[in-house]
Amino acid sequence: MNVVECNDLHVWFDLPGGGQVHPVNGVSFSLAPSERYGLVGESGCGKSTTILALLGLLPPTATVAGSVSIAGTEILAGGEESMRGHRWRDIAMVFQGAMNALNPVKTVGWQIAEPMRAHGIARRAKARERARELLELVGIPAAAADRYPHEFSGGMRQRLSIAMALACEPKVLLADEPTTALDVMVQAQILELLTWLTDELGMALVLVTHDLPLVSQFCHRAAVMYAGKMVEEGPADQLSWESQHPYTRLLFSATPDLYGDEPVVSIPGAPPRLDTEIVGCPFRPRCDVPMDRCAAELPLLTTAGPGHRAACFRTESVVTA
Ligand SMILES: Nc1ncnc2c1ncn2[C@@H]1O[C@H](COP(=O)(O)OP(=O)(O)OP(=O)(O)O)[C@@H](O)[C@H]1O
Q1: Residue-level pLDDT at 98
Q2: Residues 182 and 86 in one domain
Q3: Residue 204 pLDDT
Q4: What GO annotations for molecular function exist for this entry (predicted)?
């Protein structure tokens, strides 16, 4: 059974001056146990809003619609009270700036133990003991449980926030740019840790990142978002070599490679505003191969190969030809 089923997720924010902004428009995906799933796309395309919606952590100006089930249990329908029972227990998150997720005036051991106490999983002594085990699990000596966040380096703090997220043994871990602020060696260590956790503990992982090469190497599957929609989804390594959507192809062309074999090409123009209705394909104004029908019709995600979907009329015509 899939551990996550997200169907037709929508998020919109009411704006203070009236009007709304719609950063997530009908996102659907599923995750198998142990699966590492990448979510990529330009700034502002709705990646973070999508995963914050899964965790019920959006501000009160947000409205969330759609369905999200974790191991067969719907988590959105019951509102905040029911979400509180699932957050950290079934679905947890590692944030980009680990320091923001840690309380500077509490010891790290206390902070790792807190979700276990809050969810009634373990009482004080047992929770403290488990916190020490979790520290060891993420590569930090158990004795560090009595220290405060400022006593740790950036990479260590990111490990601490992973230990916190693991406290209740969630089925799904969401990670928003978990390695962006870290040097390459520490980044590699954190990725190794996340690989081990997914492979060995069976947790599914959603990784939000701008780092496309990382997604190709680290994730099993990935989705590309544009203007609040998924425009392509498939095996992560195929997205770079066999892109089916012009946006995916251009996004990879805009990514420098280590050997400098290919020139870096930026995508002209900017993503559309999300506070006005978009008619037709949202990528059409920037597309290098637009078709007439793209101006009026919205291409839907359709099969572009085994386990591969793309929302482009060109793909549709090749597949159905
Ligand atoms: N609280 C909010 N109120 C109004 N609009 C918001 C709010 N939070 C996010 N948005 C809007 O939602 C859109 C998507 O933002 P989001 O942070 O999800 O994008 P992203 O793809 O994660 O970008 P980045 O890669 O820069 O983190 C943006 O246009 C942003 O302005």
Answers
A1: 61
A2: yes
A3: 97
A4: ATP binding
- Residue 267 to residue 81: CA distance in whole angstroms: 43
Q: Indicate which CATH number applies to the domain containing 32.
A: 3.40.50.300
Q: Which domain holds residue 129?
A: 100-169
- The yes/no answer to whether this complex scores an ipTM above 0.95 is yes
Q: How many domains does the chain have?
A: 2
Pocket test for ligand 1, best of 9, 10, 13, 251 (most atoms within 8 A of CB): 13
User: Measured in angstroms, how far is the CA atom of residue 311 from the centroid of ligand 1?
Assistant: 22
Residue 82 banded pLDDT, cuts 50, 70, 90: confident
* 44 alpha carbon – ligand 1 mean position (Å): 5
**Identity at 12, one-letter amino acid code:** W
Question: What pTM was estimated for this model as a whole?
Answer: 0.92
Residue nearest atom 11 of ligand 1, based on CA coordinates = 23
Rounded to whole angstroms, how far apart are CA atoms 47 and 44?
8
For residue 111 the two structure tokens come to 């902070």
Which whole-number Å values give the CA distances from 99 to 17, 24, 114, in the listed order? 33, 27, 17
Q: Given a cut of 90, is residue 124 above it in pLDDT?
A: no
Is 45 a pocket residue for ligand 1 (Cβ < 6 Å)? yes
96 lines ligand 1 (CB under 6 A): no
Q: Which of 43, 47, 49 is nearest to 271 (CA)?
A: 43
